[in-house]
Amino acid sequence: MLSRITDEVNECTAFIDIFPFKWMGRLFAPLVNDVYRHYRIIENLVLPEIERRRIAARADPKYTPPVDLLQFMLEFNDKNGDPNSTKDLTSSLMLTAFGAIATNVFIGTHFMYDVAAHPEVRERMYEEQQRIIAKYGTAFSKEALRDMSYMESCLRETLRLNTHAIGTFRKMMTGFTFSNGLSVPAGRLCLVHTRAVNRNDKVYENANEYIPERVADPTNPRAATSVSGYVTFGMGEFGCPGRHFAVGQLKALMAVLIRRYDFTTKSGKRPKDKIQRVTEYLPIDEAVIFTPRA
Ligand code: HEM
């Protein structure tokens, strides 16, 4: 269900946009879209859990709440919002699921295809994993993940080339004139086109090619760091808050695959991406073949 939320939120927005008056779209949207049903399912799961935690906290002053996102949001809401309102909490959980799941699935899939299509990358990654296991054991500690520097370069290259969000939007709060004379007035909505920035051939040689070595120097910015020419996670104060978590998860996922299997695409090449529409990206047809390591 969570993986459908992102697509359905996008579909719902596109549906509402068809109507000249947005209130009409909002009226009809529940009839054709499942977002509202998902909202109620999450609410039905979350409300009793919140109540359980509140009762436990009242009954026992030494009560230690779980360390999770729900608790973090609950305490934030109690401090900053209306403590009786749980509506915001369900929306916040849905927003996080919206931001977290499809992005990771999308990048994880592309990462697998990028690695599957490059035997020399797999070999180097496997060697790195042998070194990591010898040094840290098989667990994915913070130190072990941080030390996977070749894996990090490969992931950064996947993140640079395969962008899920069309771009980052910002509204100009004040007017600004750039050094070349271009002026953007206050109130203007601006789009930073992620794919165009990330594939800028003034920044990268052979910008459309998958070349992890271009960022393999450990002094280069990490996969979660936005810099000029790399804005997959957005930028500035409102850049993605989940990016370090996402990079850790994706590295751990690839480490599990590479330790257990050698894998390649059927053709041995990187299949072309399917057309990505604003609300929809299509799965790649070509299979990945996994061979267990001895
Ligand atoms: C590869 C995975 C991911 C990518 C590419 C990605 C990308 C992005 C981008 C481009 C933005 C907009 C940033 C901006 O406006 O400057 C964003 C926002 C956000 N992301 Fe991520 N994200 C990923 C994973 C995650 C994860 C795992 C979480 C949570 C655990 C998460 C939570 C969020 C949230 C809550 C926002 C909204 C922040 C706000 O509006 O202030 N994301 N993400």
The overall pLDDT average reads 88
Under CATH, the homologous superfamily of the domain at 108-292 reads Cytochrome P450
The total count of helices amounts to 10
DSSP strand tally: 8
Would you give the CATH topology of the domain at 108-292? Cytochrome p450
Order of helices and strands: HHHHHHHHEEEEHHEEEE
- The CATH architecture of the domain at 108-292 comes to Orthogonal Bundle
Tell me the structural class.
mainly alpha
Oligomer: single chain
Query: Strand order, biggest sheet?
Result: 1-4
How far apart are the first and last residues' alpha carbons, in Å? 36 Å
> How large is the radius of gyration?
22 Å
> CATH first level of the domain at 108-292: which class?
Mainly Alpha
The backbone outline, from C-alpha atoms, is globular
Helical proportion?
A: 40-55%
Question: Main beta sheet, described?
Answer: 2 strands, antiparallel
Low-confidence stretches: none
Output the keywords.
Cytochrome P450, Cytochrome p450, heme, binds protoporphyrin IX containing FE, monooxygenase activity, 294 residues, Cyt_P450, two-stranded antiparallel sheet, mainly alpha
Any overview of this molecule?
The protein has 294 residues and is mainly alpha-helical. It has a domain of 185 residues: Cytochrome P450 (Cytochrome p450, Orthogonal Bundle), CATH 1.10.630.10. The chain is built from 10 helices and 8 strands. The strands form 4 sheets. Strands 1-4 form a two-stranded antiparallel sheet. It is globular, with a radius of gyration of 22 Å. The two termini are 36 Å apart. The relative contact order is 0.11. The mean pLDDT is 88. Bound molecules: protoporphyrin IX containing FE (HEM).
